[in-house]
Structure formats: structure tokens, C-alpha cells
Design goal:
The protein is mainly β. It contains one helix and 15 strands. Strands 2, 3, 4, 5, 7, 8 and 13 form a seven-stranded antiparallel sheet that branches. Strands 11-12-6-14-15 form a five-stranded antiparallel sheet, with no helix packed on it. It starts with 11 loop residues before the first helix and ends in a 10-residue tail after the last strand.
Length: about 250
């Protein structure tokens, strides 16, 4: 009797399953790696200053108020060309139960001359990104973003964003698009779902700018519903020279 060979090959089906698993694992690893950050230098926000909350304004139709809260400015030091990056962030808060169903909200950040919106490798450094018709609740706030900026011999900087707010929106059914591009201004146009919010509605937004001027921002949000319109605004600047970028 001949002994059975010891190097029996595994069934072809098993080999296919193993190969598919390896490909899926590799794809997940590649997707989880931000290749745009290769060669970028991580910079700190060296200066920061809160912006005062806006006045609370009555929502048209009664039953609640809206207010800009948790706004603030953060800035880096200056590079060899005298430019610095700064971030403007804010949250529009609308009270629970306010009659804002199917309303529209337009928020904008306006900055002074000699200031331009920074860019990521693919788009403006403004968040949230347009959601088109997709529910905005699916869009996560990135912990860090890569911005085109000359610093320490590189052309890109990694900047913190996740500390601005935990989410862009907590209510399902909200969509957002960017307002048409205007120099010195970034705008968002929000579409609200039908009905009154079951809890306080918070819309978070932020933008990163490049400037040789004093970091300054004017922030405003306007609400339009079938009952009328209302506007809130606030602003501030970040005095002081942070000096050259820290090594």
C-alpha cells in the first residue's frame, strides 16, 4: 500500500476565500491611510481666543430662539513669507421645538483684505463639505486636515480640527451646500427637515484661512421659514504677533 502524500493542496475554494480576505484587508488599510499627509508637517494652533456668543434672537413664529455659540479663533505662527494660518469655528444653536421645519439657514464667515481661504489637496479648507442630497449626519468631523502651506521646508501642514466640535449636526434630514464663491467669504446653505426639532439643533461650521493681516472674522447666520426670517451675528480678532513658527 502506498502512503498518502503529506503535501495535500487545500481545496481551491478555500484558496479563493483566503485571497479575498487578504485583498479586503489590504484595501481597508489603504483607505484608512491619508496619503495626502505624506511629507506634511504638523503645526500647532499657537494663539487662540474665544468669540463672544451672539445675542439670542427669537425664531419667527415663536417657540424658541437661535444663537451663535462656541465660536473662536485659532492661529499658527508666521512662516518665512510672513503668512500664518488661522481657523474660525462656530455653532448655530436653535432651541428644541422651534418652528423651523423645512426652513433654510445661510451661515457665512467674512474675513479682511489680504486673507484668502486655505486649500486642502482637493478643495477649500472649509467644513462641512457639501452634502448634496445626502443626510449631513453621515459626514464626520475630521480630527486633523492637511492644508497647503509652506512651513519648515514642506508645502503642506497638518492642522487640528476635531477640537472645534464633535459633529456638524445631530439631527437627521439636514443637508448643506456651499454658497457661491466670494473673495473673503465662505458660506454654507443648510436645508432643515420638516417638523420641529426634538432636541436643540446645532449646526457646526469652520474654515481655515491664510493671511498676512490680523486674524479677524465676522460670523453671521440667517434663518428663513414660512413664518419669516431672523439673523444672528458675532465676530472678533486675534491681536498679538505669535512670531515665527515653532520648530
Amino acid at each position: 500500500m502506498t502512503d498518502a502524500p503529506s503535501n495535500i493542496r487545500p481545496p481551491r475554494g478555500a484558496l479563493i476565500v483566503i485571497a479575498v480576505g487578504l485583498i479586503a484587508t489590504l484595501a481597508a488599510a489603504l483607505l484608512s491611510t491619508d496619503s495626502s499627509s505624506a511629507g506634511a508637517v504638523e503645526l500647532e494652533w499657537e494663539l487662540h481666543k474665544p468669540i463672544a456668543d451672539s445675542k439670542a434672537v427669537q425664531v419667527p413664529g415663536g417657540g424658541g430662539t437661535m444663537q451663535l455659540v462656541d465660536a473662536g479663533l485659532r492661529a499658527t505662527g508666521t512662516n518665512v513669507s510672513g503668512y500664518q494660518l488661522y481657523r474660525v469655528a462656530a455653532v448655530l444653536r436653535i432651541d428644541e421645538g422651534a418652528p423651523v421645519g423645512s426652513g433654510r439657514v445661510t451661515c457665512s464667515i467674512k474675513v479682511p483684505r489680504r486673507t484668502i481661504v486655505a486649500h486642502t489637496p482637493n478643495n477649500r479648507a472649509s467644513y462641512p463639505r457639501p452634502s448634496e442630497e445626502e443626510d449631513l449626519i453621515k459626514q464626520e468631523v475630521p480630527e486633523k486636515v492637511v492644508v497647503e502651506f509652506n512651513a519648515h521646508g514642506t508645502d503642506a501642514a497638518i492642522m487640528q480640527l476635531g477640537d472645534a466640535f464633535g459633529e456638524f449636526i445631530g439631527e437627521r434630514g439636514v443637508t448643506v451646500s456651499w454658497a457661491p464663491f466670494t473673495i473673503g467669504q465662505q458660506g454654507w446653505q443648510w436645508g432643515l427637515p420638516p417638523g420641529r426639532p426634538s432636541e436643540a439643533l446645532e449646526l457646526g461650521f469652520a474654515s481655515i484661512w491664510r493671511t498676512t493681516a490680523t486674524p479677524t472674522a465676522h460670523i453671521s447666520c440667517a434663518l428663513k421659514t414660512s413664518n419669516g426670517s431672523a439673523t444672528v451675528s458675532t465676530g472678533g480678532s486675534l491681536p498679538g504677533n505669535p512670531g515665527p513658527l515653532a520648530e
